[in-house]
Every structure is written in structure tokens, then in C-alpha cells.
Amino acid sequence: MASATYLSNPVLTINAVDLTDMCTAATLTNLVEALEDTAFGTTSRTYTAGLANNEVTLTMYASFAATETYATLQPLIGTKTIVELTPTSGGESATNPKFVLTNCYLESLPIINASLGELSTYDITFMGGVLTIDTTP
User: Fold this and answer.
1) Domains recognised in the chain with CATH numbers
2) 56 in helix, strand or coil?
3) Residues 53-93: pLDDT tens digits?
4) Residue 85: is it exposed, middle or buried by C-beta count within 10 angstroms (0-12/13-18/19+)?
């Protein structure tokens, strides 16, 4: 049985704009590419750490209002920015760290993803960047 869990209610900031109320899903992946360093004479493959290749994928509600998703994200296409995610709305701490992805790249932005009778959402992915973890209150 899990000894510590939390109700998913993250806080999301992109390029210093709070988009928490426009996001329905967030997945932050900390990935370090594996480089094979297997040498002759070994019987199993071995690996060493390569470059970090972090990414964050977000499901966002589509909105064309000022300071909402389109107005915030459209100017970021093809640029580097900062994405900040905190698991819950409380202050930063060891049990609620703020994850900051700096210099991450937004390659594309779906503009319209509509279905009859549904709220319009789209998935976006910020690629690369340096991941830091802030636990200071």
C-alpha cells in the first residue's frame, strides 16, 4: 500500500503566465539518453549516461481570450521558454517540489481541434531543456 499519495491538482506556469485553469493533463518526463559502452569480451550490453532529453506534454483547453492558451503559446512556437510545474497548489517544499524546465522548445501548436459537443483541447509538447527541482519554501 502506498504510504504517501496526492490528489492531482498541479500548478502550471508557461513563460511566467499561469495556465493552471486551462490544463487538464500534464506529464513531465526526466530522460537521460543511454549510450552503449559495451566493449569486446563482455557478454552483456552496458550503458552510460548521455545527454538529458527532458519533455513535458500538456493537454490544454483551447481558448483565444487574452492571456489564455493561444495568446500565450502562439508566440512561443519555434522558441525556447520556461515551464514550471508543481504537484499541488501549496508552497514549494520537499513534499511539493517545483519542477522547472528551462530552455525547452515548443515545435508546434495545434490551432483548432474541434469535435461536436465537446470542449476543444489539444496536446502540446515542450522538448529538451534543463530540469531543476526547487524545494525551498
Assistant:
1) 11-134 (2.30.110)
2) strand
3) 999 999 999 999 988 999 999 999 999 999 999 998 888 89
4) buried
